[in-house]
Amino acid sequence: MNKKYCIFAAQFLPHMGGIENYTYNISKELIKRGNEVIIITNNTTGSPLQEKIDGIRVLRFPCYNLINGRFPVMKLNKDFWKIHRYLKKQKYDIVVINARFYFHSIYAALYAKKRRTKSICIEHGTSHLSVHNSLLDFIGGMYEHFHTMILKRICKDYYGVSEACCEWSAHFGIRSKGVLYNAVDLDKIEHLKELKQRDFRKEYSIAGDALIIVFTGRLLKEKGIYELIEAVERYNKNHEAIYLMLAGEGEEKAYVESHRSEYIIPLGRLQFEDVIAVLNQADIFCLPSVSEGFATSALEAAACKCYIITTERGGTKELVLDESYGTIMKDNSVDNIYRAIEEVVANTGLRKEGQELCYKRLEDNFTWKHTTDNLERIIEK
Questions:
Q1: How many H-runs (helices) and E-runs (strands) does the chain carry?
Q2: DSSP state of 360
Q3: CA distance 381 to 141
Q4: What averages of pLDDT result for each successive group of 10 residues across the chain (381 residues)?
């Protein structure tokens, strides 16, 4: 029987990010199966108060964009109350909360409780939000614990987009009930790979046998951008040069641009089909993050058969199970990234094995069909 899903996500398209991607894709899969979906988000992008995106109805609370839009806080004005009154009249089968630490999440949990509707909260992180200031990070951590204490009193059922996220939830005294994995639309990616793609090698005059490392995602310090660029620059001083392409935008865009060279190539924000094209033409994907839930970019890289180098933080280690699948570094120090690149570049057989094993594991476990199957099982309980 078809169900009505109300999904709360503090940020949503056209704002880009992991939670936005997760919310969009799970909504699309639910609708494809005949369910109804509405997304309640914050208007971080000056978008319409309500609209439909690819068949998904979206309502947006007016908000303040704190921490450069990373922490939206609802404005209690007439547009807010208009949406609030509308929601009070609705009846849903389940309220899904993405993610835990926004005021938006507490509103969602209270809404579900007052409507006597089942609610679940999905954890997407594996560490406290950082603004790279020790005092502000400490205050933020205290806030997050206080906020979670309140949320736990209202919403009782918690899941994670990876096992690592469930382990992080335990830091707040939460015993997660399971995993609703982050995933990719593998059929769509395979279709894009078959089409005529943008030729990045030709565009940047890169020989067919030259090795390319790719980073895709937000250009943030916590993603290891500084360390990755330094490691590649050091490698190129000591070995035959390799290329590093960085696709994305973010707070460290100026830093990335300042290191532009023949071999360090910032690509800016790319359309999805171009992200797949650059991954499909690359050899190695490197994501040296200090904090991740379960990076969509790593899943997309596996779908394009890139060899993966990453850290043990977050859920990517659930894709890259051991050294035969890829390289999991203890941390993202420049030395660790340098040594990983050195070993992988020198060992073609290692790369080929890792590419095939990760693709197979992705195919068997990390598609939206698998994740939506599990979400539907939760509501049927």
A1: 14, 16
A2: H
A3: 34
A4: 92 90 95 96 95 95 90 96 97 95 96 96 90 89 96 96 93 96 95 95 95 95 95 97 96 96 97 97 95 87 97 87 95 97 96 97 95 92 77
Distance CA 15, CA 44 (A): 7
Query: What is the pairing mode between strands 118-123 and 94-98?
Result: parallel
Q: Which of 185, 164, 182, 259 is nearest to 219 (CA)?
A: 259
Sequence-distant (≥ 6) Cβ neighbours of residue 95 within 8 angstroms: 6, 7, 8, 108, 109, 111, 112, 115, 117, 118, 119, 120
Contact between residue 207 and residue 199 where contact means Cβ atoms under 8 Å apart: no
Omega of the bond leading into 72 within 30 degrees of 0 (cis): no
Cα(68)–Cα(340) distance, rounded to whole angstroms?
33
How many whole angstroms separate alpha carbon 344 and alpha carbon 350? 7
Q: Compute how many other C-beta atoms are within 10 angstroms of the C-beta atom of residue 229.
A: 23
Q: Which residues contact 50 (CB under 8 A, 6 or more apart)?
A: 57, 58, 59, 60, 83
Phi, psi dihedral angles at 344 (to 5 degrees): -70, -40
For tokens 């970019």, name the residue.
Answer: 297
Pairing of strands 94-98, 71-74: unpaired
